[in-house]
Amino acid sequence: MNNLIILLDGAADDDIPEFGGRTPLESFEKPFMDMVASNGCIGWTEGREYTHLYLLELLTGQPLNTPRGLVEAVGLGVPVDPHQVAYRFSPAYMYESKVDWAYRVTPELSSSLQDAMVRSLDMLGDLNPRLYFYEDGRGVMTVDTDEVVPFPMPPAPVSDPAFPMHHFDDYIRKVASEMDGLTVIPWGGGSLSKLGGHKVIPEARNMVMISKSPSALGVGGLLNIRRDVVDNMWSGFQEAFRLLRSGDVFMHVEETDDISHRRAPDQKVSVLKEVDDLLVENLDRLLGHRVSFIVDHGTSSLSGQHLRMNVPFAVSEVVEPSEPTVRFCENTYRHVPLGELAKALLSHSPPS
């Protein structure tokens, strides 16, 4: 029996009025997820503000506050020297009274933003900046300095646009002036010289991590977990089904979080339903294996913000379908601390 752990990124949510006061996970029947919740163990653990913090604690058993920029640099294969700081950067609109993180950047606008960023790099002078883009105007920047600037971090709104930007000030404003207010904010800066020890729990050493996200892949890199990069959840699940025949697999579904930031609860339900449909269609490939569902944090489909909340998990051996009696969603059934959850999910005797 092998294990498939499925992380539904940001799947927990607020109560949605148009769903009768239910969350997206509560609002519809999910034959596969609900079967796992009904036949095995369902409970809750502590959510974390960001995926990488959740995964680091899940897979090491220890709360590790590793900076996001450094994690994503590892995920993208970006070289970071000890004298450098790596930042994640995200697109944002700068207004006189506030800063809005931009989650709907078209490919055309993203391309124009990249061009403006590259043209303005000389404004960072002796920092010797290097840019590494991946999608939607997002990416990683490395600079030659030991100073880490504490920029605000998405998706929390920034009500005061006058936050200190230090040596990035002219650069950020120059890009904004060329792009009608659209620019990038570097955040989550980190240095290898301050990186603590990272050691994966023994139960997860031979697991394969599947994701398109530099954040998840960076955690895998820091923990020396084998990684498989995919373009989307559909290709990711096909790879997961193939690899499950020979070992344990961790499948990261980032799409649930992405759609939540766009404040589209109907679309969030559609993505969750697609995940469940994929699993039902491939039931014969999952029979006899153990499947777990976990959620790293809540992401509100109303505000687009991350939610500090307890998050659900469920685990069960996959058997022939039966009528579900429990729905996989936010719950108060039983608590397993986050630092103990992976060991419980991967053991032959999960919590009951």
What would you say this structure looks like, in words?
31% of the residues lie in helices and 22% in strands. The protein is built from 11 helices and 14 strands. Helix 2 crosses helix 11 (338-346), helix 3 (68-76) packs across helix 6 and helix 8 (255-261) packs antiparallel against helix 9. The strands form 3 sheets. The protein has a 7-stranded mixed β-sheet, sandwiched between helices. Strands 3, 4, 5, 6 and 7 form a 5-stranded antiparallel β-sheet that branches. It has a two-stranded antiparallel sheet with strand order 12-13. It has 2 domains: 3-64 and 197-346, Alkaline Phosphatase, subunit A; 69-193, Alpha-Beta Plaits (2-Layer Sandwich), CATH 3.30.70. The protein is an alpha/beta fold. It is globular, with a radius of gyration of 21 Å.
Low-confidence stretches: none
Helix content: 25-40%
Q: Over the alpha carbons, how many angstroms does the gyration radius reach?
A: 21 Å
Main sheet characteristics: 7 strands, mixed
The name of the CATH architecture of the largest domain is 3-Layer(aba) Sandwich
How many DSSP H or I helices? 11
The order of strands across the largest sheet is 2-14-11-1-10-8-9
Distance between the termini: 18 Å
Précis, in short:
With 352 residues, the chain is α/β, with parallel strands linked by helices. It has helices spanning 31-39, 51-60, 68-76, 107-119, 169-178, 214-222, 233-243, 255-261, 265-281, 283-286, 338-346, and strands at 3-8, 41-46, 84-94, 99-101, 130-135, 138-144, 182-190, 208-211, 226-229, 249-253, 290-294, 298-299, 306-307, 310-317. It has 2 domains: 3-64 and 197-346, Alkaline Phosphatase, subunit A (3-Layer(aba) Sandwich); 69-193, EIF_2_alpha (Alpha-Beta Plaits).
